[in-house]
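FAQ: What does the model actually see?

It sees only this:
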Amino acid sequence: MDFRALPETELELNFDFNTDMLKSVQDGRLDMAITQAAAPARGLRALPLLDEAMVLVARSPANLNDDRMPAFVRLDWGPQFNGQIARIASHLPGNKLSIGNGILGLRYILEHDACGYVPLRTARPLLQQKRLYRVKRAPKFMINGHIVYSEDNPNHLFLERAIEGFRGLRTSHSEPALN
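And it is asked to produce this:
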């Protein structure tokens, strides 16, 4: 996404599941939020952005419920993800470590004998390189992202271009690099 087309616009991107971003959009402190919330407050509009398949991966080949299953690392991918994990927790190995940032957690899994849920889009190049393996018999589930903005926002040109740019990410084939 190229925001150089709006040189007069200041852009701030923030990643934080704990901040009430919807309230910030509603109060006008943020122009938009990318969130898992599908039913925002009154005066806000939510547009579907991205459905993410979440898969259990490990640094080495593994089968769920196998005695040699690596330690499960609980990564924080947001409230929708946490709800899904709560539903399947009884099928997962004991949770000894939680990491509040998914990308840092993925790096931990790559460096230790561990497993955790990550977006398939993020894991795909690492699976192809055999740096990660999908855990056999592990449930896969989806989480949904939305762009949320205020219907009263006066920055219509910015919002239209930003939404177009973010929606272009749905078809992007670029993957995050993890070195």
